[in-house]
Design a protein that fits this description.
single chain, alpha+beta, Trna Endonuclease, Chain: A, domain 1, 5-stranded mixed sheet, 5 strands, about 30% strand, globular
C-alpha cells in the first residue's frame, strides 16, 4: 500500500517510486544542504542546514520541520560531529531565522548578517 502523501508534489521520480513501491516502514528523508570548506586540499562538511521557506518570517514558528527532518539533523550532529541548523527564510532570501537543532535558541538575521554567518561556519568558536 502506498505511503500517505505529505506534500503537494513529489520532488523527483525516485521519491515517488520509493513512496509507491516500498512498505510503510521504509522511511526516506531528503536532507537539504551541507556547508563545506576546503581543508588540506579536501572538501569537508562543516555544517548541515535544513531550510524552510515561509511566506512571513514573523510567522516562522508556525512551520515546524517534520519529525524525520529533526531526527536527521540530530543524527548528523551527533554522528558526524558538525553543527546542524534549521533555517527559516523569506521567499526573497532577505530575512532568516537560524536555530541549531539541539537547542531552543534562535536568531533573526537579515541577508547581510546571514551571509556573514555562513562565511564563518567551520570556525570553531563560531559553531559552539
Amino acid at each position: 500500500m502506498p505511503q500517505e502523501e505529505l506534500t503537494t508534489g513529489r520532488p523527483s521520480n525516485y521519491s515517488q517510486w520509493h513512496r509507491l513501491n516500498l512498505p510503510w516502514w521504509c522511511y526516506m528523508t531528503d536532507g537539504d544542504w551541507f556547508e563545506q570548506r576546503k581543508r588540506n586540499g579536501k572538501l569537508v562538511s562543516v555544517a548541515y542546514i535544513e531550510t524552510i521557506q515561509v511566506p512571513d518570517i514573523d510567522q516562522w514558528s508556525e512551520y515546524e520541520p517534520w519529525p524525520s527532518k529533526i531526527a536527521l539533523g540530530m543524527e548528523i550532529e551527533t554522528k558526524m560531529g558538525i553543527p546542524s541548523y534549521i533555517v527559516w527564510h523569506s521567499p526573497e532570501c532577505t530575512k532568516f531565522i537560524v536555530k541549531r537543532h539541539l537547542t531552543s535558541q534562535w536568531k533573526k538575521m537579515d541577508g547581510k548578517m546571514y551571509k556573514e554567518w555562513i562565511q564563518k561556519l567551520g570556525i570553531k568558536s563560531h559553531d559552539q
